[in-house]
Structure formats: structure tokens, C-alpha cells
């Protein structure tokens, strides 16, 4: 039985996540359109009917890959200590994104490569969550500009610069190389913040 009182049982949740992760691997290896539900079932080691038990259509799996990525980022930002300095907050954003590229590399690549394959209704939901996440970062940057901690003249451009540096890393960052995800994140952050951070006042 997959559901208990309207919610997934622990075993059901584990099987559902296994389907999502297997699909992410296959989408990354062969492409979204070239991957069938039967291939996903084979990778998981279950019947095709089991996949359909959790997901009516393949686009729903693609949406879950997107949703898990953005939900994890949202949770990390929303649960972060509000007393963090702006510098540490922004550093943590870099670390969050690079950590997911390390721990869920297939999911992250699929997130960026196949976003436009989402049906319009599911894409609208994904966009709303992405916008919510970006607004949280932008709000902190705007506050930093107002307080003089950042010298950016255009906070929105500063926010997009951050996302561009982090998000594009999926094209070249490969887990397990000589630098850890945290080291890569800190190097990117240093380049970003050293350019935007206001110099301490003399005297």
C-alpha cells in the first residue's frame, strides 16, 4: 500500500524518490525526449505500472525534479539564521547551490537543460517558486545597498550576477575533482563579493 491517511508511507516516499532520481539520471544521460517510462522503471528495478502509480505522465516527473531543487534552496534560505551578516548570507547562497551540484548533479543539470519542456501549468508553478527564491536574495541585496554594505547601483543586476555565476557552474563544475563544492563556492563568492563589497571607511 503506497498511501496512509492521504500521505505517502515511508516506503512509498522512498520508491517515489527512487523514480525521480532514476529519471534524472536517464534524462541527463539520454535526453528527456529519448527516455521512456519503461527505461525509468528498469533503472529503478520496478514494473512500469509502479511508475504510473506515482506519476500519471512523464512531465510530472520532470516537474518533481525541478520542484525538489527549488524547494531545497527555499528551505535553506528561509531557515537560515536571520542574524547572519550580509556577507555570510550571500556566501551561504553560493554554498547552497554548489552543494546541490555536488550531491544531485543529475537533477541540477536536468533542471537547467529541460526547464522549457515543462507543460505551461507546471512551468507556471515552477516559475512562481523560482521567483520567490530570487526575491529573498534580492531583498537582502537591496538591504545591503541601502545600508552601504554593497556598492552596487542596480540591486537587481547584482542579484542576476550572483545567479549567473552560481547557476552557470553546472556547465563546468564536476563533482569529485580536486576542489570540493564548498571550495568552489567560496572562490566564486570571493570574486563576487570583492567586486561589490563596500570598502571599509578609513579611520
Written overview of the protein:
Keywords: DNA-binding, Repressor, Transcription, Transcription regulation. InterPro entries: Homeodomain-like_sf, HTH-type_TetR-like_transc_reg, HTH_TetR, KstR2_TetR_C, Tet_transcr_reg_TetR-rel_C_sf. GO terms for molecular function: DNA-binding transcription factor activity; transcription cis-regulatory region binding. Residues 13-73 form the HTH tetR-type domain. This is TetR family transcriptional regulator. Strands 1-2 form a two-stranded antiparallel ribbon. Helix 1 (10-30) crosses helix 6 (105-113) and helix 4 runs antiparallel to helix 5 (86-103). The model is unreliable at 1-6 (pLDDT under 50). The chain is built from 9 helices and 2 strands, in the order E-E-H-H-H-H-H-H-H-H-H. It has a domain at 57-194: Tetracycline Repressor, domain 2. The chain is an all-alpha fold and 203 residues long. The protein is elongated and about 60 Å long. The chain has helices at 10-30, 37-44, 48-54, 58-78, 86-103, 105-113, 120-146, 155-168, 181-196, and strands at residues 3-4, 7-8.
Q: State the shape.
A: elongated
Order of helices and strands: EEHHHHHHHHH
CATH class of the domain at 57-194: Mainly Alpha
Can you give the mean pLDDT?
A: 90
How far the N terminus sits from the C terminus, by CA atoms, comes to 69 Å
| Percent strand | under 5%
CATH fold-level topology of the domain at 57-194 = Tetracycline Repressor, domain 2
Could you say what the CATH architecture of the domain at 57-194 is?
A: Orthogonal Bundle
Helix content: 55-70%
Protein name: TetR family transcriptional regulator
Keywords: DNA-binding, Repressor, Transcription, Transcription regulation
Organism: Leucobacter weissii
Domain HTH tetR-type: 13-73
